[in-house]
Design goal:
The protein has six helices and seven strands. With about 230 residues, it is α+β, with helices and mostly antiparallel strands. The protein has two domains: about 110 residues, no CATH class; about 90 residues, no CATH class. The strands form two sheets. Strands 2-6-5-4 form a four-stranded mixed beta sheet, with no helix packed on it. Strands 1-7-3 form a three-stranded antiparallel beta sheet, with no helix packed on it. A hairpin with a 6-residue loop joins strand 5 and strand 6. Helix 1 packs across helix 2 and helix 2 crosses helix 4. Pfam families: SU10_adaptor.
Length: about 230
């Protein structure tokens, strides 16, 4: 269920003891709310996952459309055939010329998808596409910026921020903590503000289930494909 920007902003002002928006005005809180929604999408891509049909261009290299930042999975060709993930090193070793249609003829039907570990908005299809193929994929989108109220005094009226926040309702508490983290970071030179900022950021991370650096470290023997993680 969608929730409104003011739902988060109002709760944050209570935590900040700034109900009048004197120290942290509504437009500022809304900016941080936007930042928090994007942070959720980046740190937990499944939070903003959706199914989309991707039109493919000619060749092996493909890019996500604007508004999406990470490919999570390619399910099937729209025509029906399933698509399976593959590790690039296998094709690089066994079919070194797989990017060349003279070596591996291009097709409208995708059999395998290969990720790019260094650019998450890019992926490769095998065989290379003729430019007429379409695949059904699960992608993570970047949350749209919250629509601000019209000008005048309404900009400072917290209750005027009625636009929906483009992340699931389950992350509402996390966003409250993120907004408080950014607010206290603004007062970093005030006694105790740094500690409160850090405490709220830790709560934000815990809500997202962020793993420690040790837990996140990838085993060197793990195939280098984000689809296999």
């Amino acid at each position: 269920m969608a929730f409104q920007a003011r739902d988060v902003m109002r709760r944050a002002t209570i935590m900040l003891q700034d109900g009048g928006g004197v120290r942290w005005p509504a437009p500022e809180l809304c900016d941080w709310l936007d930042d928090g929604a994007r942070e959720i999408a980046l740190q937990k891509p499944t939070a903003t996952a959706s199914t989309a049909v991707l039109e493919l261009v000619e060749g092996t290299k493909q890019s996500l459309p604007e508004g999406y930042h990470k490919l999570l999975a390619v399910v099937r060709n729209v025509a029906g055939r399933v698509v399976t993930p593959a590790v690039r090193e296998v094709f690089d070793t066994q079919i070194p010329g797989w990017h060349d249609t003279a070596v591996l003829p291009f097709s409208a039907t995708v059999m395998h998808v290969v990720d790019d570990m260094f650019d998450q908005s890019v992926f490769y299809v095998v065989p290379g596409n003729t430019g007429t193929g379409e695949v059904e994929a699960i992608v993570s989108r970047l949350p749209e910026k919250i629509t601000r109220p019209s000008g005048g005094s309404s900009i400072l009226d917290l209750d005027s921020y009625t636009a929906a926040v483009a992340v699931p309702d389950i992350y509402q508490n996390a966003l409250v903590d993120y907004v408080c983290y950014r607010a206290f970071s603004k007062d970093i030179n005030v006694a105790g503000a740094a500690q409160r900022a850090q405490a709220h950021y830790q709560l934000f991370q815990q809500a997202l289930g962020i793993k420690s650096q040790v837990e996140m470290a990838q085993n060197v023997d793990t195939p280098k494909s984000r689809f296999s993680q």
